[in-house]
Amino acid sequence: MRCVPSFDNLADDVLIQILQTLSVREILTLRQTSKRYYFLSKLRCIWCAAFCTEVLARHLPPPGPSRPLHVLSSADLEHRTLLALSLERRWPRSTPNVVVSSRKRETVDQILLIPGGTQVLTVHGNKVVYWLISGQPGASHKLQKIGEWSSPSDDACVVVKDMECQGIVAIGCRDQPNKSAAVFALALEPAISQLCDYSFIPGTVAGISRHLLFLDTTSEQNGGGLELLDWHAQTEGTALLPRIPDLFGAFLDFTHFSDHILVVWEACISVFPVPEVPAQGRTVVAHTKVFMFPESISLPIAFTTCVPRGWSAADAPAYAPSQESPSLTILARPKGKSGRIALSMIIPLSNDDGAKHASSSVSFPYRLLRLSPFILGALGDTDRGLGGQRCTQICMGSSGRGLCVFGREVRLCGPSLVYIPPFEMQFCPVFETGKAIYEIEAGVCGDKVDFDEGMGRLVVAKQGGGFDVVQLL
User: Fold this and answer.
1) pLDDT tens per residue across span 372-391
2) CA–CA gap between residue 229 and residue 240 (Å, rounded)
């Protein structure tokens, strides 16, 4: 009798190697054909290969906290892979679903969703509460209070999160300058671990990024600026990124881009090299470049390169970047114009531009470009009376996924290619103009919303206290 070749006759080791080369759709299809393929398709090595090739190699925002790949289970890898692909396919027309809510009836002054999308911080006066979200698709989600921290004084707290170092936050006094500040790490045991404590800081806490703690000292008589402390070294010296009061206007925000620090003021963007912070005393950092805005801007403000940060674990495979020379988009509300979002883009200089400005472009070869603003009501919403709604929040991920809040309505945006005359294409966030995905309760400020691009998840404060966790699917 002649033996007929069959896929089923292959040894398990051979089938596993084949499964590691298949797409997720093919793996899930094969899973349904027999018990043997069902169990083989559940193996961890299959989903580790799928996660790397379908998510990391394609530069999709990876869902969940960044951990070493070798500690992630097969079920966790499968869940992260399927969620990343689902969000890619359905974004930005995803459907919101409230998966869990906090029942704690205590007014929320500030809410933050920590990168990874499973940790939440809520601020209540001088108290900070740490929450953990757990649960998988198809199962109920749980919200667990992990710990809390209270300021030694009665001053209201403000919390800032490090977008690049997961679980690192800084806490300072909200409105009182020249007070105390501390840096914390969020974990399970202990829940809130203090890494660094300053009994006195100049100005107020403005942000934290990498080893630097950023302080807003613009209330000083000489104009001040953005003061930097090296909290890793825990030294007393500072580096000042100075402000010119009559030219720059009020401080709004900052970001790291192309090995520089970009400080955004109402009237301009000032570019600085990343300084060496002295152990003692103060050093003043010189501007590398200053870009003036065509019109002044105000809060809220957000940044995106439209390039996902990727997987930060030590054992993550290395893949070529999706863009050799990324651009940076700045989104903000124009000063005095509440119902729109101004978009500006910092893009690489062309060869002609570089020749014209060679002396000033060696260290930072970029130029500022003004894009068309997003105007709520200009594209089909006027009849709903949305044209005068005030923009109160903009949250952006590095991939270009994000959201904005106009009045009580939450709208999504996603990355898209835009044409930049005369012959250039760049990725830029584009806002949805249809129906809003979520409506905030009446009486809640629109800035009490935060967002995680990898999980496709947002947290929203509620009128009577507590908050909702909203999953986009």
Assistant:
1) 999 877 544 444 445 568 99
2) 9
